[in-house]
Design brief:
alpha+beta, five-stranded mixed beta barrel, 6 strands
Length: 162
């Protein structure tokens, strides 16, 4: 009985993030409006109001504190403020769990840089020395966008780094 209850709780927690769309392949440009902010470095984007079409993105170049850690709730609030009503352009990198790790821009400016400029302190898991290498790699990549719908297009000239 205890295993059933734990399983039900885990399933409920796992469904807390409403993004259910398929993940784009590495090197694909994905663009669309932000629909939901998961935490300080995660969000959902999609042009349809249907969460079944939303793509869950984990920012590749910013490591916010976890929600339960000091600064985590403030990081989420800042990301919500920065992306509310905005259209993102993201370059998909590797997949991590049920989300894609991607470098994203808002109005041509890197979202990780916007978070840092807003005073959000990095401190989440995974923000080691390789983070600056990822930032430099993504900074060399240019993004294009197609307003009105999410667009998936192959990018053969540049690839995201793990």
């Amino acid at each position: 009985m205890a295993a059933f209850i734990l399983g039900a709780l885990y399933t409920s927690a796992a469904k807390a993030v409403p993004c259910e769309g398929s993940l784009p392949a590495r090197g694909t440009v994905v663009s669309g409006p932000v629909r939901y902010v998961v935490d300080g470095d995660g969000l959902c984007m999609g042009t349809s109001p249907d969460p079944q079409t939303w793509v869950e993105v984990r920012l590749a170049d910013f490591y916010a504190p976890e929600l339960h850690a000091a600064g985590g709730a403030a990081a989420k609030a800042t990301l919500e403020r920065l992306v509310r009503g905005e259209y993102l352009v993201c370059l998909a990198g590797r997949k991590s769990y049920d989300r894609v790790v991607a470098s994203c821009t808002v109005r041509g400016r890197d979202l990780g840089d916007r978070l840092r400029a807003a005073g959000v302190v990095e401190g989440g898991e995974g923000g080691g020395p390789e983070a600056s290498t990822r930032r430099q790699s993504f900074a060399r990549t240019t993004h294009s966008c197609n307003f009105g719908r999410i667009r998936f297009s192959s990018s053969s000239t540049s690839r995201a780094e793990d």
